[in-house]
Every structure is written in C-alpha cells, then in structure tokens.
Specification:
Distance between the termini: 53 Å
Order of helices and strands: HEEEEH
Helix content: 25-40%
Structural class: alpha+beta
Shape: globular
Strand content: 35-45%
Number of strands: 4
Length: 71
C-alpha cells in the first residue's frame, strides 16, 4: 500500500479527462469526491491533473472580473 505522504500531492489536484467529446473532471480528498462532466470539442484525447488551489484562484478572479463588468 502507498504511504499517505506519497498520495497527498495527487489529492490536491483535479483530474481532467477528455475523450469522445466529453470532458470529465474529478477530485477527492479521500472523504469527499466530486465529479463533473460536460460536452466539449475534443481535438486530442488525453488527461492531465491540475492544482485545485490554482484553479480556485483563477475561478475567483474570473468571478471578480465578471462582477466588475456587469456592475
């Protein structure tokens, strides 16, 4: 079995998987799991993990920018 210290970095990422016009996103902290799926134009199938913290920072900034544009 893997030691908890070795698994931890993966738990702070979001998995993006693109295949057959579908984008799947998934993340877990071993207690709670989140999965989402949407239809996209996939040019090249594949998968990648991205840091969840950085994605949250980007999303928050986009909301802030949108709020300023709307008001």
């Amino acid at each position: 079995t893997a030691q908890r210290g070795n698994v931890q970095p993966v738990l702070s990422n979001v998995l993006f998987e693109a295949k057959d016009s579908i984008l799947n996103l998934s993340a877990t902290d071993l207690e709670i799991s989140v999965k989402a799926q949407t239809t996209v134009a996939v040019k090249k199938e594949g998968s990648i993990t991205l840091p969840a913290k950085k994605l949250l920072e980007i999303a928050a900034k986009l909301v802030e920018i949108h709020s300023k544009l709307v008001h």
